Amino acid sequence: QFTPSSFLRIGQLSNVDLNEDIHELETEVPRQRPNEIPHNEKLLSLKYESLDYDNSENQLFLEEERRINHAAFRTVEIKRWVICAMIGILTGLVACFIDIVVENLAGLKYRVVKDNIDKFTAKGGLSFSLLLWATLNASVVMVGSLIVAFIEPVAAGSGIPQIKCYLNGVKIPHVVRLKTLVIKVCGVILSVVGGLAVGKEGPMIHSGSVIAAGISQGRSTSLKRDFKIFEYFRRDTEKRDFVSAGAAAGVSAAFGAPVGGVLFSLEEGASFWNQFLTWRIFFASMISTFTLNSVLSVYHGNAWDLSSPGLINFGRFDSEKMGYTIQEIPIFIFMGVVGGILGALFNALNYWLTMFRIRYIHRPCLQVVEAMLVAAVTATVGFVMIYCSRDCQPIQGSSVAYPLQLFCADGEYNSMATAFFNTPEKSVVNLFHDPPGSYNPMTLGMFTLMYFFLACWTYGLTVSAGVFIPSLLIGAAWGRLFGISLSYLTKGSIWADPGKYALMGAAAQLGGIVRMTLSLTVIMMEATGNVTYGFPIMLVLMTAKIVGDYFVEGLYDMHIQLQSVPFLHWEAPVTSHSLTAREVMSTPVTCLRRIERVGTVVDILSDTSSNHNGFPVVESNPDTTQVAGLRGLILRSQLIVLLKHKVFVERANLSVVQRRLKLKDFRDAYPRFPPIQSIHVSQDERECMIDLSEFMNPSPYTVPQEASLPRVFKLFRALGLRHLVVVDNRNEVVGMVTRKDLARYRLGKEGLEELSLAQT
Hints:
It comes from Sterrhoptilus dennistouni. The protein is mainly alpha-helical. The chain is 57% helix and 8% strand. Strands 8-10-11 form a 3-stranded mixed β-sheet. A 3-stranded mixed β-sheet has the order 13-14-15. Strands 1-18 form a two-stranded parallel ribbon. Helix 5 runs antiparallel to helix 14 (364-388) and helix 24 (598-606) crosses helix 25. The protein is elongated, with a radius of gyration of 29 Å.
């Protein structure tokens, strides 16, 4: 069903002027919007392209590499370190900006609402306060949702699934643009200030990645500025390495966990990894957390005291008070099981919700309305819970930012309000560190229940927001509840400090939702500043992952699957040895001859039914009867640059003063190569010949058609390929393996299942 909006979208994407055609189409197509978009998770979308991690080693590339001497390689290496330092500094500064703005705006909002509540508690009419709170929330979230829905939809959510895909080698449109960064930062500030059940930690990872992609290219396509620096890095290989450094710097700024950041990039992201890269990424993360630390310390007025390494600070856990004994290990493992089950429930609910959203709430205006509804409901739920709670605690000796008195005696405050009437980060720290007895079990139980559903409803809204903090908060609440009930059961024996159980509950809940193991253990250890808890946290996370995986996969993997992205996991499906390359590959293959007519090339590139990106080049000897053998591989982007510069054999023979194409011409066109429609080729030029021999990659990777699927998969995944040519024993091209052919096979409940491909 083609709707005008989809035509408009096509028009915006290509640089050609399609406006005249659009108007004709609009008159023909009746204006109808589908109410339901059919969506099937058993599909793979064909709209995603692969990134080319493998350099095309054509003659130009080899000549340039041979020209570069040792000293020049050294400068390239120094440039890499400089870029990593800049990534760290800028990511740290963006994190500071988010933190300071959120703190001030949220502080202002809570002060206004608190004064209002105090005023109306005395003289009655608290419904006005509720209205004020809900309206403030909804209006702030409305702005945050509007910019995301109408300007840059990619900025929705936490951005971690998108970055995961990018590092896996899938090109998701607009994901590392400057515009996305601006919308992301503004959106996350607005959604946290708007009181949604979200955190500002997840989006930091996306922001770091955008910063990295921007700096390493030395130019901005959104601003139309080219700074002529770092031109050597204008290719997917280098860009992807820097993006993984940016993601690590983002984690490190969010949690004050540089090692955790490196491990996050390693565990969740990059498919190709080497030691030098690890060291550079670690450097970027360290710089990022240090920048954040120094700027925030200056902002808080104690310039020499570096006490805030990350956006969230769990505070110090002292080993003396908070040690654990051997008999608590089974208790921790049990908490891991609970976390895994709750996490699986969260993911299953969110799955159905997301399916519903994809089907029915696909228009931007509806998405904004839904976001406002969630904001208002969140405020209402919070208000009602605070209003109904009779849990009063003495004010002296407690560190509550906005103590609400409501119906408590003078000198007391409502303890439900510390959980709801605060930014989620502060609430987490309170749950970890408030002394035993600060919370009524009833309060904690109700809070966990409500917040669980609110957070589940909020994730996947069209606002930019992370799921880290809400899951920590849910976990901390039920963990603390667990600790309190333990000390009831054991008649108040000393070892049940609720703060310790709050930490374990938080780890279990977060592990159960996102299923990260290694990096999450290290992040939790670094954020609490205590190595003693390393072992229990690891046990809890392992249990949560094993239990959760039994039911449903992790939240990020689920969202990647729902968007039908051709994502390649570390290994081929276990039962796939029976398949060979012959069954997996795409056929027939469009081949080009080594010296080819320009008209043929243009026709092949313009053919929309087969939107191929790589073409095997075969020997061009038409006189012999045998099929020509494989000579090389050439990419669509290279052919387009050749046509644009009109590199034809005839023009070279005419001795027209024409400079030879250099690698720089290909780099300047990267990353947005012009579409073939925008390149004008006259009738006479169509008859010319084009010689591909110095531009094609003469040594592409090939596999024999008998190779098994796991073998093909391993080669493809480890080298980060985009095209893998399948040949027979006479070296003739029989097929081509691309990412979609491998991502089609997935292990389902009944064994190996094959997904179908779809254009949407």
